[in-house]
Structures are given as C-alpha cells and as structure tokens.
Write a structure and sequence with these properties.
The protein is an alpha/beta fold and about 475 residues long. The protein contains 14 helices and 19 strands. Strands 2-1-3-4-5-6 form a six-stranded parallel beta sheet, with helices on both faces. The relative contact order is 0.08. It binds 5'-deoxyadenosine and iron/sulfur cluster (SF4). The site of 5'-deoxyadenosine has 13 residues, from strand 13.
C-alpha cells in the first residue's frame, strides 16, 4: 500500500516541520505536548495511555519506543483500556491473533461512545495487510490512527495530524525507508531490555507471513547497537536481548564485515552488560565461530533457541527451511558438545499441509534426541498470500489436534527430564519479579529456566546465587545463598 495521505496537509505547523529525522518527530512531540497540556487542564488530570502488545519480542520492543514517545508527549501510563489513548500493537503470524484484535476493537468502540475524546491507535504487523486496513477503514470508523511496522517512529506526527484534521489517519508503508535512531524509549523492566539488531526477514518459509509484513532484512550499524547497549546499562540495564528474525544474517547487507559473532563480542565489552541473550538464529546457517563465541564468552547466556518447525525432512523441504532432520540433529549435537550445559529450546509447527503421524513421529524423535528444555508449539495457521496457503493438502482441524496432543506429551516429558538435571545445583539468577503476598522472588537462570525463592524485594534486578532445591517440571523452588 502506498503512503496514504487522505488529506493534503497545508497546516503551517506541518510546512515548518524539520525534514530530518529524528528532529522532525521531536518537533511533533512538542506540538502534541502543548495540545495535551490543554487537555490536562480541561480534565483536571494528566491524560492516560495504555499500550497492548500482541505477538513477539520485536513488537514488545516497538512498544517500548511507542511508550517512550507517548511519555515524552506527557501521557501517564494506565493499565486498562479505559485510558484516554489506547494503542494496539498487533500481530498477524497466526489467524486467531487477527480475530482477537477485531473483537477488542469493537469493545474499544463502545468505550469511545462514553468518552468522545478517547483516541484509538492500531499499528504493527496486522496493519501491513491490505485486507485488514480495508476492513477497519470501512467497519471501524472510530479508530483514529493506523500505521504499520515501518513507520512506528511517526506516532507523534500522526497523532498530531489526527487532531488537526479530525479524521481517521491511515499511513501504512510498503517498505522501510530509513532506520531512525535516538527516539525516546521507555524500558518496562529497568534491568533487562531488548535491542533490535536487524529488521525484516528474507527467508520466506512457506507458511510465514513475516517477510511480507516486516519487509526485507536490514541490519543496524554495530556502533549504534553498542551505543544503545551503553546507554541502557547507564540507566540500570544488566541483561540485553539482541533481537532479529534471523540473527545469523546480521551484517549481510552491510559493508563493514561485522557479523553476529563479532557483534556479540562487541556488546559484551560494554562494561555494564552482565548478560546477553539473543533471538533467534536459523538452523540453516549457524556458523562455527558463533558456537565458539557463545562457549567462550562469559556474558553470553548458554541458551540457544533454535527453531525446528518440523523434524520431517519432507515437510522441512515444503516449508523452505533449507535443512534436513539429520542436519538439524548434527547441529544440535555440535552445539551441545562445544557448549557444556547449554539449553536448547525451539519452535514447532503442527498441522502443516500434508503432515501425517509419521512426520509427527520424526518431530518427536528430534525433540528427544536434541533434548529441548522447552518448545513453543504452534498449530499451523493458514496465512493468505503465503505459498503454503495454496497447497491442496491442508490438514483437518481434528487430525491437527491429534498430532498436537501427541507432540505435547513428548515435549512435556523431555522438558521435565532436562530441567530435572539441574536439581541440586547452585546457579546465578537474575531477580526479575517479586510477589509481596508470598515474599517470593522469581529468578531466571542463564539457561532461561525459572526459580522461585524467598528474598527481599530490594534484590530485584540484581544477580544472586541460588540453590535449585526442587524441580517442579518447568520451574524450581530454591533458596538464596
Ligand atoms: N502458523 C503457525 N505458526 C507459525 N509461525 C510462523 N508462522 C506460522 C503459521 N503460519 C511460528 C513459527 C515461528 C514462530 C515465531 O511462529 O514456529 O518460529
Ligand atoms: Fe518467518 Fe521463517 Fe523468517 Fe522466521 S525465518 S520470520 S519463520 S520466514
């Protein structure tokens, strides 16, 4: 969809706006600030905002930027959909995500009848689909602002345009233009944060809509990533998660020759960084030097999330994954051999076109042999426009449910077996959540497992040593040393 400007805007404030980013957005943040101050006087309180994030960590990260912009404008955070401004940052990887969003927009529309000045913003992956935007344009006129994944940095400008025109603003781009650095950002946790190292995906797995809604791969400059890590740690962040749809492709479109293993090394040299995680590599091109870097670098968590999708070589081919069952197992074995105590986790899709119980048995075989610590299991969802959607051997819901149950059982058994191996050990954990009612802290191990243990609230965000006393399947009970 082309950039859709439904009003050719001649407002003097727009004419005077700087052309360069991010200066332009700071200019619109200031304009919105003035409008919001007036609104606050009317209301006798600060206007509130609520962001609801659907989907993956990329969206979580984008929502931090959206929150940063809204806070800079002067909105106060509230935790409900009655807020003066509600943002839905949507996901479209699976169809049911879309269905849920429509239901909730309807609900928001009813709330807006009680508060005419309420503003509703929809953005993210689902908005990159023409059919979704068309449906909202026609059936949900009360939505104020719609944009996609490529221009989230425009939030303040688009909100301002909505206020000035009084009309629904739709601005969805086909592809990314530039990577805009240095926008305000609000970090939800304080002690851990994600950093995008690249955007988009060029892999075109046959079931997946991501390459169509997130566009072609673009890597950020290593120095910008390191600078962001430095800035975050100066503000209390200890754990960094490097994010990309396929981190092994990091740097492919850049000329400086810096690839992912080297980037890990560079980020780990930032003094305040205590732990580094990353999400996700692709099994088709996992280089040896990356395995060696994870093994040797003390700050890099010994956890590799390695999406399998299927253990059947026949289905992997139809999925366009570029590896076989045997190649995946070889890679998993190599990673486990070179990185002692590494935890492998994965994503699996059940019900891909043509799947039989024999394919599921192959997948289960890989689950057992690779020894996954956990697996996200997804029911295949047909996404229009992807090659798999046009395949004529779609699997019925009943058969898929049968396959799913069979897999779930194997995944549960393997995960429990793997976690059990840690019982009795003493490990360093990051204190991530504290519950007043129970006095229990939840800590995350290097390998991504969780442990609950009695602690003081003040320990939040620090790294402490904990003995893992009892394994409860997916988590432990423990005590602090
Ligand atoms: N149906 C089900 N699961 C999917 N995923 C991606 N596309 C689909 C789809 N059409 C899963 C993959 C991916 C994860 C993020 O979402 O397992 O790794
Ligand atoms: Fe989708 Fe495959 Fe890209 Fe992952 S690697 S985002 S599954 S196309």
């Amino acid at each position: 969809m082309d950039r859709n400007i439904d009003t050719v805007f001649t407002d003097p404030q727009f004419v005077a706006a700087p052309q360069m980013e991010p200066e332009r957005q700071y200019y619109f943040i200031d304009l919105m600030k003035t409008l919001l101050l007036a609104r606050a006087t009317e209301l006798g309180r600060k206007p509130t905002m609520h962001i609801e994030t659907f989907g993956c960590q990329m969206n979580e990260k984008d929502s931090e930027t959206l929150a940063g912009i809204l806070k800079a404008i002067g909105y106060e955070e509230s935790d409900g959909e009655d807020a003066d401004l509600v943002v839905y940052n949507t996901c479209t990887v699976r169809e049911n995500a879309n269905t849920r969003v429509y239901g909730r927009i309807g609900y928001l529309g009813n709330r807006k009848k009680l508060n005419r000045d309420k503003r509703i913003v929809l953005c993210g992956c689902m908005m990159q689909e023409k059919s979704a935007v068309e449906k909202i344009r026609q059936s949900y006129r009360f939505v104020d602002v719609i944009f996609g994944t490529h221009n989230i940095y425009l939030l303040a400008e688009l909100l301002y345009r909505r206020e000035k025109t009084g009309k629904q603003v739709i601005d969805v781009w086909d592809k990314a233009k530039e990577i805009v650095e240095s926008l305000p950002r609000y970090n939800k946790y304080g002690f851990k944060a994600g950093i995008n190292i690249m955007y988009g995906c060029d892999n075109f797995c046959s079931y997946c809509i991501v390459p169509y809604v997130r566009g072609r791969e673009r890597s950020r400059a290593a120095e910008d990533i390191v600078e962001e890590a430095r800035h975050l740690t100066e503000n209390g962040v200890r754990e960094i998660m490097l994010l990309g749809q396929n981190v092994n492709s990091y740097g492919k479109n850049r000329e400086d020759g810096i690839r992912f293993a080297e980037l890990l090394r560079m980020v780990s040299k930032v003094e305040g960084v205590k732990r580094i995680r990353f999400m996700s590599p692709h099994p088709k091109d996992f280089p040896d030097d990356l395995i060696d870097e994870i093994a040797a670098n003390e700050k890099v968590c010994k956890h590799v999330h390695l999406p399998l999708q299927s253990g059947s070589s026949r289905l992997l081919k139809a999925m366009n994954r570029h590896y076989t069952k045997e190649q995946y197992l070889e890679l998993a074995a190599k990673i486990k051999e070179r990185i002692p105590d590494v935890a492998l986790t994965t994503d699996i899709i059940i019900g891909f076109p043509g799947e039989t119980m024999k394919d599921v048995e192959d997948t289960i075989d890989v689950v057992r042999k690779a020894g996954f610590m956990s697996a996200y299991t997804f029911l295949y969802s047909k996404r229009n426009g992807t090659p798999a959607a046009a395949m004529d051997n779609q699997v019925s819901d009943e058969v898929a449910a049968e396959h799913f149950n069979r897999l779930l059982q194997a995944v549960g058994e393997t995960a429990a077996e793997q976690a059990e191996r840690w019982t009795g050990r003493t490990e360093t954990v990051l204190c991530e959540e504290y519950k007043e009612e129970t006095g229990l802290m939840t800590g995350r191990l290097d390998n991504n497992l969780l442990v609950h243990f009695p602690a003081e609230k003040e320990a939040l965000g620090t790294l402490v040593r904990v003995r893992l006393e009892e394994c409860k399947g997916f988590y432990f009970l423990g005590s602090q040393l």
